[in-house]
């Protein structure tokens, strides 16, 4: 009897030991990836709502991406220069809205394109040289910068000698000063068409008119190049592709009058850092 009891107790110890080892062998559930994104006050794309929270269609799309990838994402709306400073100091993981350019791919891993847009020249109707397609030579053109808009303006100035560029630090200043005639009677603004439309919503119709479409572009999200972010960018690409194919991105953008980017363009979204010539 004693021998049988000892054998039973030994067997029980073996079972408990095996269970304990099995529990240790099961990996703990990984905690969700916590990512910090910065953006700017840039309606209709992104802005701060009445409760002080980040809002807008690109914020909504990002939240959908983070939910699909099982990430915990925090979005902070800042002045654009401060947003740049925050991410360049490594104090944020991602930034948007961003246009995918070779220069930016040196520092960031870019997402697939999410929303289409256009840069246009706008001015007051009825002034000299305001006819559709009239070259902007000899006039002052204002743009917000530093930004993709100001870089586009630099290209316009190179193509039209005598044109004067004026860069505004406040993204709302270009439309406001155009309405006030601050750039001269024939002054123009190079603006994001959707942003200008949003800013002009409270003004009388026809206060400013489109003079010329300068270029089309696409916005997406950018992750700072750092260890581990290449893998996260692949997850982001997969999530955006799925949301695009399902029509979810289009449904989130349409109420704001924005057009979703072509889903096919996301196939080539994950591009390596471009090789640019070194600056002297």
Q: How would you sum up this structure in a few lines?
A:
The protein has 280 residues and is of the alpha/beta class.
How does this structure look, described?
The protein has 280 residues and is α/β, with parallel strands linked by helices. It has 2 domains: 33-116 and 217-268, Periplasmic binding protein-like II (D-Maltodextrin-Binding Protein, domain 2, 3-Layer(aba) Sandwich); 117-214, D-Maltodextrin-Binding Protein, domain 2 (3-Layer(aba) Sandwich). Helix content is 35%, strand content 25%. The chain has 9 helices and 12 strands. Strands 1, 4, 5, 6, 7, 8, 9, 10, 11 and 12 form a 10-stranded mixed sheet that branches. A two-stranded antiparallel ribbon has the order 2-3. Helix 2 (57-68) crosses helix 8 (229-246). The longest helix is centred in the N-terminal third of the chain and has 24 residues, at 2-25. Residues 25-29 and 267-280 have low confidence and may be disordered.
